[in-house]
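REVIEWER CHECKLIST
Item 1: Sequence provided? yes
Item 2: Single chain? yes
Item 3: Sequence as submitted:
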Amino acid sequence: MNLNDTNLYVNRELSWLEFNERVLEEAYDKSNPLMERLKFLAITASNLDEFFMIRVSSIMRSTNMAADTSGLTPGELLSAISKRVHEMVDRQYSCFTRSLRPAMEKEGIHFLAYGDLSEAQKVFVDNYFHDVLYQVITPMAIDQSRPFPTINNLRPYIFISLTTPGDEALPVHSVAWDSEENRWRISDERIHGAKYAVVQVPTVVGRIVALPSEEGRFDYILLENIILAHINSLFQGHCVSRTAMMRVTRNSDLIIDEEEADDLMHELTRSIKDRRRGEPVRIEITKGIDMTAMGLLENALKLTDDKIYDIAGPLDLKTWMEFSLRPEFEHLRHTPINPTPVPDFAQQESMFGVIRKKDVLVHHPYMSFDCVVRFLEQAAEDPKVLAIKHTLYRVSGNSPIINALILAAENGKQVSVLMELKARFDEENNIHYAKLLEKSGVHVIYGLTGLKTHCKVCLVVRSEGDSIRRYMHFGTGNYNEATAKIYTDFGYFTSQEALGQDSTALFNVLTGYSKISEWQKLAVAPLTLRSNFLNLIETEEKNAKEGRPAAITARMNSLTDIKMIQALYKASAAGVKIRLLVRGMCCLKPGIPGISHNITVSSIIDRYLEHSRAYVFENNGQPKVYLASADWMSRNLDRRVEVMFPIETPSLKQEVIDLLELSLSDNVKRRELGEDGLYQKPSRRGRTKIHSQIESHRLAAESYAAVKG
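Item 4: Structure as written out by the authors:
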């Protein structure tokens, strides 16, 4: 078995694009409510923005590197990405123009061009332009004295070709899209001496403008269409001959030399500003621009043809996310399902009293995240609590977690917070909160050089009589009550002494110079997590070879680490039955005879983002169950501080196992990865409908109802 064969692996970026395609399928799925479909479409656009800003820009910096494990060189990969994304963009806009927009019109939701407005609506739009937009817009000419302006990242602009009456007519090659032949047609035409300008579509006002409309209708116009209808008033003395909408995506991956940075916060603040001036990696532009203007853009932005995306519709589809959430369209969304209170904490008893008696497992968003906030609030107010230690990766705006930590410090508790400043695209938010916590007397630590602290741990130290007891919360997701409503995750409350000792040791490693050679129950990356996982897989392989029960069931966001994949291949070849639930990237190929024939891969895309990480190893009939903050990715195992913790209470172990089985039996939103690399939904013919997320809600509600009587 040659485990270095490139045919055994899928490139991670191409696998990620297939994940985004699965999200796009939800936008096409007519069984989803209309505004949910629009939301899924917006998510695919937002996902692509980040993909280009981070992943594509990283590959562009690595063009001299060797081929990856799938056999693709960086140049070959960029070509494959460009081809796949161009196809995806076409499908996005086909979904919007041919499916979603007609469906909205059936619901009385209309997006109008200026020429289609009623007289009253034109008066409204004209007044809005002159009273508001005209005061905000800044036309920027492009000529010898005024060089090409900086085009801000992800901002919509109007690119304008101008002529001056009386100028000598000049031959200009122009290009226009022939929709019937599905290709560009180039022709010669005469345009008076062309000049160019750009206008940024303002982002300080809403892009979708509601219009006065009749009862039962919802009429809107896009901001750029208002500007285009009045564009000549911005260039008096000239004629606007052509316009095109454009949007540039720039490299936004922060590269910081932490070894050389004297002040990490200052260096991050400076680097965040540099994002606006990153190298362009993509331009989206509406069809119809002339070739001379296109050449000007390509030269100014240093873009090649493969980085140009011709758009047949409104730029920036993620705009529709906010629109889909408007209250007037509540009837076009899923009926809200409120999280249930956690049954074990349903009484008024102190949470510390409950956790002292038993471990508690929480399944979000089916069970409320309020229990985590209450845990910290009670710790902040409890006179017996001496100290709180907390890791934070991503928190919400106006975070109740932050407020509770500040209250604890003001009440005289010893509060220490490891705030990860390098959480991508949350750097500014985290810097703000770090400063706020420090001002309140909290000891703030910014993590370890070269590592991101991604683990989710809260440790509360409490004086009880003549002894000290430690109470912990471990999680698979962030301490963010906003995302906890839309991400599926596990939380675990415990006061086990061994886990308390490990948690104390973990914070000593994070905040000081302590070195731990051995952990009692936790597995911690980058120290022991990889070796623990490999040992667990190898034990299953050994058991299979010796004829004992051997199986692995694992749920994660992504599976890209080659050493982990190779260990799974070896286990599969030995006879271990392996079932994987991988929401996003999966570089493993199932179904290869003699190698991965015992491996199945499933992915669930649904109303909630599947975010939890859970790992079950059969262990010769005595299953070992673990939850973790880590996926099976190299970055999680080698370049981040991650924590895996065991679930040992028999009833809680079974609960995790049952929930994984429920997901694996889903025949509504689950897709199975085939040997051909394509994901397909399983057949429901003759089978009872099983929708795992809806069923998880029902189970949580039943558990709470049983406690309330």
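Item 5: Key structural point noted by reviewer: The chain is about 35% helix and 25% strand.
Item 6: Recommendation: ____
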